[in-house]
Amino acid sequence: MKDLKPTGKLNFYLARMASRGFGAEQVLAGTGLRAESLDDSQSRPHPLQYRKIILNMIELTRDPFLGITLGAEFKISDLGILGYAALSASTLKESRELYDRYRGLNEHIFASTNYIKHGRWFSEIQDVYRLGDVMRFAVEEFVSQTIELAATMTNKPFPILELHVTYPQPPDVSPYIRRFNCPIYFNQARNIVVFDINRLQDPISLANEEVFKLCARHCEMLASKRNSDAQLSDLIRNYLVNNPGEFPTLEEMAGHLNIGSRTLRRRLVSEDLSYQKILDDTRKDLAIQYLQHTALTPKEIGYLLGYSSVSNFRRAFKGWTNHTLSDVRLGAHEPGAPATSLHARL
């Protein structure tokens, strides 16, 4: 078990692009990351870096459906120990529950929520990092990868019943028909995949109770170690980024992290930080990301960052960056595409 370390999304991308003849330096261009520096001790790439990596890959391959392609190439082994745990579960339901519990062991560029409602199984894909124009890639990769992994574990096809996506219908829909083979609704309010609830009881072909227990314990140990090794400031930033619109008080954050408020203050002092500094830095980073990669209005961005008035947000942003909101938005050179209300179904 000790060699089955969690694998990273970036490692998967680099390997798949290498198989296509593209080097790491091409994939990482413009990210500030270097292949020789990518080791276990390095922080994970942040969402903006992943966004640039995805854009690089699409440009290099000239494949607008690269998300579907890479999802189909994803293997259980690419999940590391988490994949082996999922592969030894008794049913797809047990496998999914374990994956949801320890999904933090692997890298993700969005948040997903599984729920059962009215006898149907839904998976909602949420753009918590405001990926903008690469959210389409993320959704298509996720759905294609889910099909591949579920089919591998059960040894039979895994159908998608419906797919609802927030982006417009592309000119060519044949890749969707070949890979997803289900009704697809474009320009929707949310990204939602509808699965067959009866498939949750499908048995895993390589189910092994003892191996499953062993792998699950290993996942728990790795998750605990990762949390204990992480700096408190990183845990706070992760919470803020993954809960858009929520900016708890120090006391509330201490409760979320299951530590006392005095302990939280003391540990932040040891990192030479204050809670307010983390809040301001996170707000600044999110504001820049929203301005450069979304069509959200300043009022909407200010609300997401916890400001009751847009004027207060504008003043705060000027103080953080010495730039106006317009300076940053115009400097992005990536205006958002206009929203449409067209609904399409295959």
From TrEMBL:
Key words of the record: DNA-binding, Transcription, Transcription regulation
Keyword DNA-binding found: yes
Domain HTH araC/xylS-type: 234-331
TM region positions: none
PROSITE patterns with a match to the protein in the record: HTH_ARAC_FAMILY_2
Pfam families documented for this protein: Arabinose_bd, HTH_18
SMART domains per the UniProt record, alphabetical: HTH_ARAC
Domain of life: Bacteria
InterPro entries per record: AraC-type_N, Homeodomain-like_sf, HTH_AraC
Protein name as catalogued: Helix-turn-helix domain-containing protein
Source organism of the structure: Aromatoleum anaerobium
Lineage of the organism: Bacteria, Pseudomonadati, Pseudomonadota, Betaproteobacteria, Rhodocyclales
